[in-house]
Design a protein that fits this description.
The chain is α/β, with parallel strands linked by helices and 1160 residues long. It has 33 helices and 42 strands. The longest helix is centred in the middle third of the chain and has 38 residues. The structure holds guanosine-5'-triphosphate and magnesium ion.
């Protein structure tokens, strides 16, 4: 009783245990999967009571299954049975009951024969009996007509019955033998040749000698493994196996002297393995395998490779190790898709340069050869992840090896067991990272050519994408939104002895102001444009203006033109555009040359005049001096012309990289066309030392210390340099600046004191200020604020001043650059730098901007003026000239386009003449005393137009403003000597009368003063009957005061006539009215002033303030009188008339005239 209970308990326990491995897949499907090794040699019998669909019993050391009542045969619903890796050698007869079984896996057991019960399982689709000890396949195999997969591999089969052919559905058949003892199939069995659905056939490790004709019946065969057979004959019928993609013949052809011809007829073949045979050659017929991707001929006796091999354009994987190859022939680069090439353990003493064009290569195995060198260009194989060069005879490796970036990540560079000297073997043995660092250092001192290369051109021309193509060797287009911000600097080393510092400028116009800091005549300039954007009308915008910018700043510079986006243009289009560009470049250059020569000849002619020749050098004449200066400047320009490019490189930076290779070759030639200049050891040492200097900016004194220490250390004299340490250092710095390694401006005494030993610092400083997103990015942080003496409230005010008006207070600048930790000196030098290059201007502190009065200095950045026209413009400057007001106006027209940044610079110069400015992007409204000034720029298809207008009652002052601004722009335009412009004075008469199309006088009129004793003329050609005051056309001559009152009389009279003059006292007491009065008064004005009540002291003050300007003195006296009296206007008038009519003054006529004119 107890026994039974116990056994029941243990049974229910083991049943519970077993159930944990039971799963139900949801649709009532029961699966029992007992994990490996759970039981050893047994399984609970309860198992046979389950209703199982699938049963998995792997590696449980099972010897057999029970027979009798509770046996395998009870699991009749079972569809899958797997008992891999046990010790089974038989199955119970009852297993035949499991007729629903479709999948049976008994691999890795001890069966010596296929159990008879299996042949009853006619629903079997997959039968896996691999790795047993089965010798025979009985005829009954033919019963299993539903079989699709049959694995009998790894047994000891001696013969295969023909009945196998009845299993017509088989598509995977494994009949491979064992390495030892070798199985005995001598030919491909007939039963196999009858399986028309066969896709995958493994017959490896048999003793097959023939592939019979019947093999051709296997039309669906894709993969065939015949490894380790003894083939002597392959039927030509194999070519009917058109789907065959993979054939493994490893060691199977040792009895063949040649690869059987039939193999090369397999047109669809993708993988062919011929490893381990004895071939000395690959037949040229290999070219028939047009789709081949993977070819292994490892461990043969190959002596050479046929050219035809390289016609296999799809080849990705080529394994040729352990042969007798002596070289890689030219042509291998035709294998564009090759990613793996193994040539280890051959006899190679050299490899053809052409290997360097196999750009897809990821693994290149060249170990165990006799190589004494590797091509320099191997460093172009940018995709390499594995490169073995160990066990060769290398004495040096290419110094640019570190360009193989991926090797750094994978560490897959092998150089052991060579005789390396450069770099030393010991360094190479240390691994990839130390080696790469060493190479970089070594190149700095070894480079023979150092150049700066500048990429310049319009916004989105393709500069950065071009730079990427050059630097990376493959396409990397920038994204739509990516713009270069100010500029970027990159080191490019296309060859180990050539170091190129690339400066890639952002094309945005705000940044173009910064270009000039970096352009140097020694640099090579790449002028980049986009072919798709070019049309015959925008030459200047895309090319001409940029060409000028280079020539202006870097006279004599080498210029190369590159058009990008060639992938988007037809050849015809490119040719047409190129012709047009070249023609225009040369035409414009020739025009400039002719003009220059003409100008020089003109000045020369002037100098050649006898009287000029006489006086030259004797008396100081500013005109002659100025002309002399001009001529020297022009001669210099003439002598330092850059050669215009003769060609335009058309390139695509997109994936196809069309034209890039040719462009790069041409570019390198140009970059190296100067004399070789290796860096002397001491200079190199100096460069490395300053590059390690920790501060952001290197002061001159510090540089000098470093330099003299090095020279002393190396025991070098400076005689051969400049003599003194200062001069020598100057030479070194100049050279390093011209090669782009550092930035240094020696021409300016203040700037000379700092060296930008890391040019990035300067770039970053410029970027800190010149940022389009200043408003969002620069915010207040307490800690920085206190360092820059800024409170949060003041920061806000100053920031607004900068964003809205372009005014940068010193404190804000300091705050913006706080991260650079600049000393006061360095900061002020940076300011000088920006001033020197016209990036900003210092403004006078003005009471009109009280928030900035306390700043030590204020800078104006016209590039940051707001876009919108101010609201107040309409009221402050009504479209019609107000009554009793003069208006003078001139226009400056640039037929194509104004010079870059001209308006901004002009705007800044204006600072000297006016106050109360309101600035916006395209205009300025300003004031001087009571005169107002409006400057506006407009653009249309005819070009750029700048209009300068002044309004007020003080005509001499208005003329003063006109002349001051005109002189400014004439001075500014000297920077662009070839710019075409037209200057016109707009007819004041037409303006004041409100005529629609005012007449325009030629700008030359501004060079003259008003003719003497001519007050009224009919000069306006639109209205020839109208008499107009002469002083509307020619400026009043400040040196000739006698006439002024007459001219003013004419001017004020004109005002009165042409407008509805304001009558009565108001009219007379207005500025214009008093000017009218003044124009009728002469030298007796002092007497009149005294009579009107001005003191002698006041009169003298007026005389001092306006020396030699009688008219001005009179009007000032009259307005002073008017403004000082605290009586009614009527009383003022009556006082004035009384004085005129007094006996002492005796100007009764004037009094009458005034009465009549103003209706008094
Ligand atoms: N299809 C094609 N697109 C190009 C090519 N070169 C440049 N691009 C595209 O043109 C746009 C501008 O290219 P970038 O290289 O950024 O031009 P950039 O001159 O550096 O522009 P900025 O730095 O803003 O002055 C990007 O969208 C690029 O992807 C080319 O050769 N072919
Ligand atoms: Mg760019």
């Amino acid at each position: 009783m107890t026994d039974t209970t116990e056994s029941m308990t243990s049974e229910s326990q083991s049943s519970e245990n077993l159930r944990q491995y039971l799963t139900d897949n949801g649709d009532g499907h029961q699966i029992l999967s007992i994990p490996e090794g759970t039981y050893k040699g047994w399984i609970p019998r309860i198992l046979y009571t389950f209703e199982l669909d699938e049963l998995r019993l792997p590696f449980l050391k099972l010897l057999s299954f029970p027979v009798g009542g509770t046996a395998l045969g009870t699991l009749t619903k079972m569809k899958l049975f797997e008992a891999v890796g046990n010790y089974l050698h038989r199955l119970p007869v009852s297993f035949a009951e499991c007729t629903q079984l479709a999948y049976l896996n008994l691999e890795f057991n001890h069966f010596t024969a296929i159990p008879a019960s299996i042949f009853e399982l006619v629903n079997l689709e997959v039968l896996l009996l691999g790795d047993n000890e089965i010798e025979e396949i009985p005829l009954e195999i033919g019963n299993l007509v539903n079989l699709r997969v049959l694995n009998l591999g790894g047994n000891c089969l001696t013969n295969i019955p023909e009945e196998l052919a009845q299993c017509k559905k088989i598509h995977h058949l494994n009949l491979c033998g064992k390495l030892y003892p070798r199985a005995g199939l001598q030919t491909v069995p007939k039963g196999v040749c009858g399986l028309g659905e066969l896709v995958d056939l493994d017959l490896s490790w048999q003793s097959i000698q023939t592939i019979p004709d019947g093999f051709g019946y296997l039309r669906k065969l894709e993969s065939l493994n015949l490894k380790g057979n003894h083939l002597v004959y392959v039927s030509m019928f194999i070519q009917y196996c058109k789907k065959l993609e993979t054939v493994n013949l490893t060691g199977a052809l040792r009895y063949c002297s040649m690869v059987p011809e039939a193999i090369f007829m397999l047109e669809g073949l993708k993988n062919l393995n011929l490893t381990g045979n004895f071939f000395t050659e690959i037949p040229s017929e290999v070219c028939g395998l047009r789709k081949l991707r993977k070819l292994s001929i490892q461990r043969n006796a190959l002596l050479r490779l046929p050219e035809e091999l390289f016609s296999l354009e799809h080849l990705e994987y080529l394994e040729l190790g352990e042969n007798y190859l002596e070289t890689i022939p030219n042509g291998i680069s035709k294998l564009k898709n090759l990613t793996y090439l193994n040539l280890e353990q051959n006899q190679m003493s050299s490899i053809h340069e052409d290997i360097c064009n196999c750009r897809s290569l990821q693994s290149l195995l060249l170990g165990f050869n006799k190589l004494d060198s590797v091509p320099e260009r191997i460093c172009q194989l940018g995709n390499l992840r594995y490169l073995s060069l160990d066990n060769n005879k290398l004495t040096e490796i290419p110094l640019l090896m570190d360009r193989l970036e991926h090797l750094r990540e994978t560490g897959g560079l092998y150089l052991y067991n060579n005789s390396l000297k450069k770099p030393p073997q010991a360094i190479c043995n240390q691994g990839v990272i130390p080696l790469f660092l060493f190479l970089k250092e070594m190149r700095i001192s070894a480079a023979k050519h150092r150049r700066k290369m500048i990429l310049i051109g319009a916004v989105r021309a393709g500069k950065t994408s071009l730079r990427n193509a050059l630097l990376l060797g493959h396409s990397q287009l920038t994204a739509e939104h990516e713009r270069t911000w100010v500029l970027e600097r990159h080191l490019w080393e296309p060859e180990s002895d050539l170091r190129v510092q690339i400066l890639d400028f952002g094309g945005h116009h705000i940044y173009s102001a910064a270009h000039q800091m970096f352009l140097t005549p020694e640099a090579l300039h790449l002028l980049v444009f986009d072919y798709t954007k070019y049309n015959m009308d925008n030459y200047d915008l895309l090319i001409g203006d940029w060409l000028d910018a280079i020539i202006d700043r870097a006279p004599g510079a080498t210029i190369i033109a590159v058009g990008t986006h060639a992938d988007l243009c037809s050849n015809e289009d490119i040719n047409d555009k190129t012709d047009d560009i070249i023609r225009k470049m040369h035409r414009e250059e020739n025009t400039k040359l002719t003009k220059l020569k003409q100008e020089i000849a003109k000045i020369q002619m002037f100098f050649d005049q006898p009287e000029v020749r006489e006086s030259r050098g004797k008396i100081r004449d500013t005109k002659i001096e100025r002309l002399q200066e001009k001529m020297t400047h022009m001669q210099k320009m003439l002598n330092t012309r850059s050669l215009m490019p003769e060609t335009v490189y058309a390139v695509s930076c997109a994936d196809d990289l069309t034209g890039i290779e040719e462009f790069q070759e041409g570019l390198i030639l140009r970059l190296k066309d100067s004399e070789e200049k290796p860096l002397p050891d001491s200079w190199h040492k100096f460069l490395s030392e300053i590059q390690n200097y920790p501060e952001k900016i290197l002061p001159w004194d510090k540089a000098l210390n470093i330099f003299t220490d090095i020279m002393a250390d190396m025991n070098q004299s400076m005689i051969s340099l400049g003599g003194s340490p200062e001069l020598s250092l100057g030479m070194v710095l100049k050279y390093l600046h011209s090669t782009g390694e550092i930035v240094w401006f020696p021409d300016n005494n203040k700037l000379k004191n700092i060296v930008f030993h890391r040019p990035e610092t300067l770039i970053e400083m410029l970027r800190a200020v010149f940022r389009h997103d200043f408003e969002e990015v620069v915010n207040f942080v307490e800690e920085h604020g206190s360092q820059a003496d800024l409170s949060s409230a003041r920061f806000d005010i100053l920031k607004q001043d900068f964003i809205k008006k372009g005014l940068m207070a010193y404190e804000l600048l300091k705050y913006t650059l706080i991260h650079f930790e600049l000393s006061t000196d360095a900061l002020s030098t940076f300011v000088s730098l920006m001033l020197k290059f016209d990036l900003c201007y210092e403004v006078q502190k003005s009471s009109s901007n009280p928030s900035l009065v306390s700043s030590p200095c204020v800078l104006l950045f016209p590039w940051f003026f707001p876009e919108e026209v101010p609201e107040s413009l309409k009221t402050k400057w009504p479209s019609q000239t107000p009554p009793n007001t003069f208006e003078l106006r001139y226009c400056l027209k640039f037929p194509n386009k104004g010079p870059p940044n001209f308006f901004e610079k002009f705007s800044v110069k204006l600072q000297n003449h006016v106050s109360d400015r309101i600035n916006w992007k395209s205009g300025i409204l300003a004031r001087k005393n009571l005169s107002q000034m409006l400057i506006q720029r407009t653009q249309d298809e005819d070009g750029d137009l700048i209009t300068v207008s002044v309004r007020g009652t003080d005509l001499p002052e208005l003329w003063g403003l006109i002349m001051a601004t005109r002189n400014d722009f004439i001075l500014l335009l000297q920077e662009w000597p070839f710019i075409r412009f037209k200057l016109n004075l707009v007819c004041t008469h037409c303006i004041l009368r409100g005529y629609d199309n005012p007449y325009q006088f030629d700008g030359e009129v501004l060079e003259m003063t008003v003719p003497r004793a001519t007050y009224w003329e009919n000069w306006c050609r639109n209205y020839e009957n109208d008499l107009i005051p002469a002083c509307f056309v020619y400026r009043l001559d400040p040196d000739y005061q006698d006439d002024i009152s007459k001219h003013m009389q004419a001017a004020t009279e004109f005002l009165q006539k042409s407008m509805d003059a304001v009558d009565g006292v108001l009219g007379l007491l207005s500025d214009a009215g008093l000017m009218f009065v003044a124009s009728h008064i002469g030298f007796d004005w002092t007497l009149i002033s005294l009579s009107l009540g001005l003191t002698q002291a006041q009169i003298e003050q007026i005389q001092i303030s306006h020396p030699h300007q009688a008219f001005h003195q009179i009007t000032t006296a009259l307005t002073t009188w008017r403004d000082a009296r605290d009586v009614s206007d009527d009383e003022k008038i009556s006082q004035l008339l009384t004085v005129f009519e007094s006996e002492e003054i005796g100007k009764i006529e004037l009094a009458d005239l005034l009465r009549e004119r103003y209706g008094l």
